[in-house]
């Protein structure tokens, strides 16, 4: 009988390791595997507490004397089985979770043997995993409930225009999870396809070409532009100076420095020209290999200064047949983002006040200003967070839902 019970328990142990997640048919396969990893860790925790409680009962209340060899043997046996369970859980979470950072896994790899510290780290992994599961489940249910409504099916297609120092790569989307969320809710998405950095007139001409291409391919009369950072300035130039107002229904700028970056001009004045040129040359060589045809590091930076933006504002006024609206965000402390935004925050704060790590909030309003996006947490929203660059969920701010709401309002306005 004891052998049968042991075999039964061992069989259940093997089955649980292979299929720890019992909620089938309700989740995406990735989430099922990830949640199974959490349940493995939870089962390991419960098992440890149960074993300790059992041995304490035997020793304290049952007055059972256990020989040292048996105690050691059972301890080794239990440890091996628990380590397999924990390893299985961590592998599942590590391969499937998108919110548990590499830093946590590295700390676990270093301190897995250290009592208390390893428990704290495992608890952190579990909390993050559960939050990710709940977020994804809520998002899935929300999209499913409004699937027929197609809330983002705007009259005109959406053109997403990136900021400086990035490109519209297929392998790594500048806009993170946002395009997928918009498409799932009915939007038609295109990209600016301009170079990573160039003078505003050059970038604007590339955006103009993208707009004309979209008009030709889709037959649409106009496009709705959503532009981030320098992309907002480039788009305004294309609309006002290059005649694209005929083909643009609306322009929504996100954290765009419409009045320039005062600190950028001051820093460039202090840094030796040779150092700036050396950095620029290396950047241009790298991004030429990555797809830029003629990247211009210095021109891109200069056009973001307060002086250059003041000149652009003179020659690129708002066009009467285009809806202009803008949105901003800010970090709440230097610890709210990693390098270089944390450094940028500290540099800008004493010079220009509140900022998102690259742009002062006072420079962001243009046209109909929709205000600063805020969070309930202590982190705030950085220049990268507002476009989901790091793909991290932020407490109190659902970045995908923010853009779905933004585009759905354009639809309701007839755009």
If you had to describe this structure to a student in words, what would you say it looks like?
The chain is of the alpha/beta class and 415 residues long. It has 14 helices and 6 strands. It has helices at 2-18, 29-60, 68-96, 102-111, 117-145, 178-184, 200-218, 230-240, 262-270, 273-289, 297-302, 306-315, 341-352, 399-412, and strands at residues 158-161, 189-191, 223-228, 248-254, 323-329, 368-373. The longest helix has 32 residues, at 29-60.
Keywords:
415 residues; alpha/beta; 8% strand; elongated
The main sheet comes to: 6 strands, parallel
| General form | elongated
Helical segment count: 14
Low-confidence stretches: none
* Strand fraction: 5-15%
- Rg (CA only): 27 Å
Number of strands: 6
- Indicate the structural class: alpha/beta
Give the CA-CA distance, first to last residue. 74 Å
Series of H and E elements: HHHHHEHEHEHEHHHHEHEH
Instruction: Give the integer mean of the pLDDT values.
Output: 90
| Overall helicity | 40-55%
Strand order of the largest sheet: 2-1-3-4-5-6
In short:
The chain is 53% helix and 8% strand. The chain has helices spanning 2-18, 29-60, 68-96, 102-111, 117-145, 178-184, 200-218, 230-240, 262-270, 273-289, 297-302, 306-315, 341-352, 399-412; strands at residues 158-161, 189-191, 223-228, 248-254, 323-329, 368-373. The longest helix is centred in the first third of the chain and has 32 residues, at 29-60.
What topology does this entry show?
Blueprint: H1 2-18, H2 29-60, H3 68-96, H4 102-111, H5 117-145, E1 158-161, H6 178-184, E2 189-191, H7 200-218, E3 223-228, H8 230-240, E4 248-254, H9 262-270, H10 273-289, H11 297-302, H12 306-315, E5 323-329, H13 341-352, E6 368-373, H14 399-412
Parallel strand pairs: 1-2, 1-3, 3-4, 4-5, 5-6
Helix pairs in contact: 2-3, 2-5, 4-5, 6-14, 7-8
């Amino acid at each position: 009988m004891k052998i049968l019970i042991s075999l039964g328990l061992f069989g259940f142990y093997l089955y649980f390791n292979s299929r720890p997640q019992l909620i089938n048919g309700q989740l995406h396969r990735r989430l099922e595997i990830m949640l199974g990893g959490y349940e493995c860790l939870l089962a390991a925790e419960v098992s440890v507490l149960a074993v300790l409680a059992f041995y304490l009962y035997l020793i304290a209340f049952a007055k059972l004397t256990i020989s040292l060899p048996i105690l050691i043997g059972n301890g080794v046996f239990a440890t091996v089985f628990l380590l397999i369970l924990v390893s299985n859980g961590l592998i599942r979470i590590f391969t499937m979770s998108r919110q548990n950072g590499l830093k946590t896994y590295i700390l676990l790899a270093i301190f897995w043997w250290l009592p208390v510290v390893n428990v704290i780290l495992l608890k952190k992994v579990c909390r993050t995993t559960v939050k990710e599961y709940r977020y994804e489940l809520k998002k899935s249910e929300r999209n499913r409930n409004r699937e027929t409504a197609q809330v983002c099916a705007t009259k005109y297609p959406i053109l997403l225009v990136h900021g400086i120092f990035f490109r519209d790569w297929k392998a790594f989307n500048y806009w993170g999870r946002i395009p997928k969320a918009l498409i799932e809710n009915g939007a038609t998405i295109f990209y600016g396809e301009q170079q990573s950095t160039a003078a505003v007139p050059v970038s604007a001409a590339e955006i103009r070409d993208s707009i004309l291409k979209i008009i030709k391919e889709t037959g649409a009369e106009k496009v709705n532009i959503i532009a981030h950072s320098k992309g907002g300035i480039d788009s305004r130039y294309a609309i006002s100076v290059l005649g694209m107002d005929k083909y643009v229904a609306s322009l929504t700028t996100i954290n765009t420095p419409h009045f320039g970056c005062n600190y950028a001009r001051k820093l460039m004045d202090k840094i030796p020209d040779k150092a700036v040129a050396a950095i620029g040359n290396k950047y241009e060589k790298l991004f030429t290999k990555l797809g830029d045809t003629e990247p211009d590091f210095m021109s891109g930076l200069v056009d973001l200064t307060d002086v250059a933006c003041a000149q652009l504002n003179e020659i690129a006024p708002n066009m009467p047949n285009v809806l202009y609206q803008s949105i901003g965000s800010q970090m709440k402390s230097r610890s709210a983002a990693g390098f270089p935004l944390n450094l940028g925050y500290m540099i800008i704060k004493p010079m220009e006040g509140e900022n998102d790590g690259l742009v002062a909030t006072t420079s962001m309003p243009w046209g109909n200003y929709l205000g600063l996006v805020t969070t309930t947490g202590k982190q705030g929203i950085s220049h990268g967070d507002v476009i989901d660059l790091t793909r991290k969920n932020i407490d109190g701010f659902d970045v995908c839902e923010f853009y779905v709401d933004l585009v759905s309002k354009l639809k309701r306005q007839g755009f």
